[in-house]
């Protein structure tokens, strides 16, 4: 087999022995495995950590693999390659997986050599891509034109607010600390005054005030984040 760069792979599998077996094999091949043993923990890691590929079991406690996959694709607009594992080999089962957004299917039992080969093919096929559009709930930023819209309505932002918004959208749903936001705007030389607070106030007034549900949230003692409108009360 040709040489390849090591992959960081998230294994979401509720059977510890199988997860460990897969992880040991991939680690021996030079890859970096990480683990989640239920759907909710797997979704959190998939959203907050940069993985090259995800191995996803269909039957999981907390949240099944199909729901997890659909949440990643439709709600979070996350396009990390997913290889779905299942004991079900019927066509309707496979179609359900593809409909949820998986990229490939592997039926249990399987050969670990084939698992790695499919992962390498998935990552190669996807390649390093930079999305041209960021979206959180009904808020969108076009990175080519640097235009901002919410609920189809155009929003004019100054350069500082636009940089803050892009930083927060790329980090979604994670919290971004004040020092990280200051670094984004001013590098290693932030101003003495509380200019960041002023820019965030302006950003909040632009993207939240005209709309019924706020997106920009202050996480006291930690920083700021964008929240999906699905998680907020009317």
Walkthrough of the structure:
The longest helix is centred in the middle third of the chain and has 15 residues, at 112-126. A 5-stranded parallel sheet has the order 2-1-3-4-5, sandwiched between helices. Strands 6-7-8-9 form a 4-stranded antiparallel sheet, with helices on one face. The chain has a two-stranded antiparallel ribbon with strand order 10-11. By secondary structure, the protein is an alpha/beta fold. The chain contains 8 helices and 11 strands. It folds into 2 domains: 8-126, Response regulator (Rossmann fold), CATH 3.40.50.2300; 133-231, Arc Repressor Mutant, subunit A, CATH 1.10.10.10. It is elongated, with a radius of gyration of 20 Å.
What layout of secondary structure does this protein have?
Layout (H helix, E strand, L loop, with lengths): L7 E5 L3 H13 L3 E5 L2 H10 L4 E5 L7 H11 L6 E5 L4 H10 L3 E4 L4 H15 L6 E4 L2 E4 L4 E4 L2 E3 L3 H13 L6 H9 L8 H13 L8 E4 L3 E4 L8
Parallel strand pairs: 1-2, 1-3, 3-4, 4-5
Antiparallel strand pairs: 6-7, 7-8, 8-9, 10-11
Short key terms for the protein model shown above:
single chain; 234 residues; alpha/beta; Rossmann fold; Arc Repressor Mutant, subunit A
Shape: elongated
Under the CATH scheme, the architecture of the largest domain is 3-Layer(aba) Sandwich
The radius of gyration over CA amounts to: 20 Å
Average pLDDT, rounded to a whole number, is: 89
> What is the topology, as strand order, of the major beta sheet?
2-1-3-4-5
Order of secondary-structure elements: EHEHEHEHEHEEEEHHHEE
* Span between termini: 55 Å
Query: Beta-strand level of the residues, as a percent range?
Result: 15-25%
Instruction: Please provide the count of β strands.
Output: 11
Largest sheet: 5 strands, parallel
* Topology-level CATH name of the largest domain: Rossmann fold
Q: What would you call the structural class?
A: alpha/beta
How many alpha or pi helices?
A: 8
CATH homologous group name of the largest domain: Response regulator
So what's the CATH class of the largest domain? Alpha Beta
Helical coverage, percent range = 40-55%
């Amino acid at each position: 087999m040709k040489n390849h760069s090591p992959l960081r792979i998230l294994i979401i599998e509720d059977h510890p022995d199988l997860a460990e077996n897969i992880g040991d094999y991939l680690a021996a091949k030079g890859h970096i495995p990480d683990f989640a043993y239920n759907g909710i923990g797997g979704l959190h890691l998939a959203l907050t950590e940069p993985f090259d590929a995800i191995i996803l079991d269909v039957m999981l406690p907390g949240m099944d693999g199909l729901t997890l996959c659909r949440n990643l694709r439709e709600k979070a607009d996350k396009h990390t390659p997913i290889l779905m594992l299942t004991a079900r080999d019927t066509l309707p089962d496979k179609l359900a997986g593809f409909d949820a957004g998986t990229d490939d299917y592997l039926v249990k039992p399987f050969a670990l050599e084939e698992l790695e080969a499919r992962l390498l093919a998935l990552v190669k096929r996807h390649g390093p891509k930079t999305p041209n559009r960021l979206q959180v709930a009904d808020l969108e930023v076009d990175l080519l034109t640097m235009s901002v819209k919410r609920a189809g309505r155009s929003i004019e932002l100054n350069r500082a607010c636009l940089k803050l918004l892009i930083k927060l959208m790329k980090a979604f749903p994670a919290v971004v600390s004040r020092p990280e936001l200051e670094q984004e705007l001013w590098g290693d030389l932030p101003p003495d005054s509380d200019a960041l607070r002023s820019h965030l106030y302006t950003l909040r007034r632009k993207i939240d005030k005209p709309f019924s549900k706020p997106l920009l949230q202050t996480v006291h003692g930690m920083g700021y984040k964008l929240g999906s409108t699905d998680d907020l009360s009317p």
